[in-house]
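Form 7-S
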Amino acid sequence: MGRIRRRIHVGQALAVAASIALGAWIVQAGAARADTDRAEETFADLVARCPLIVLADVEHPGDGAFVLHVTESFKGAVGPELRYQDEPQAAVQAGWTKAIVAFSDPGTIDVRAPTIAWHVTDDGTVDPEGWQQYPGIPGTLADWEAAFGIGPGGAVLSTPAATPVAAAPGDAPLRDPAQQAVLAAMLVIGIGVAVLGGVAVVLGRRDRRRRPA
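Output:
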């Protein structure tokens, strides 16, 4: 009987270790996939998937709000001003006075939309921090304007100002591949532990039935 119990304990330990190893592999694979997807996207790809890309002066009224005073539109039609309230994960950073912003959804400036923003300095350098680099991306504001075929100081479009659309109640934020991998790993480990518990119960019952009366 003692030998049977030892075998049960050893089997449980091996199964738990295997579940944890599988979960760790899933996490690593998901993170690697996210890095690969990010590395494979070029500047041309980003422009193709974003319906709106603008150059704007950035105003910070306070309380997490952002006002973008659009001075040029590289792609898409938008009014002279975009306002966003209470955006704790805004793509535009506090302290920036000018930025180029690429929107997947002009109703939000949240990085998870995703929204991509590049800091523009007074001398026209784009993304001096190197945070949002894509193959083929122009390095200066003049290069951006040349790439989109517009001259310096492009006119603001006269279409009505866009109104940010609030997320519907219950809408969940989008998850990136790494987050999905973590959730998958947790699910695998949970299933493994549940299976082990069931196996232990079954073997324990068999052991009791085999005991002499």
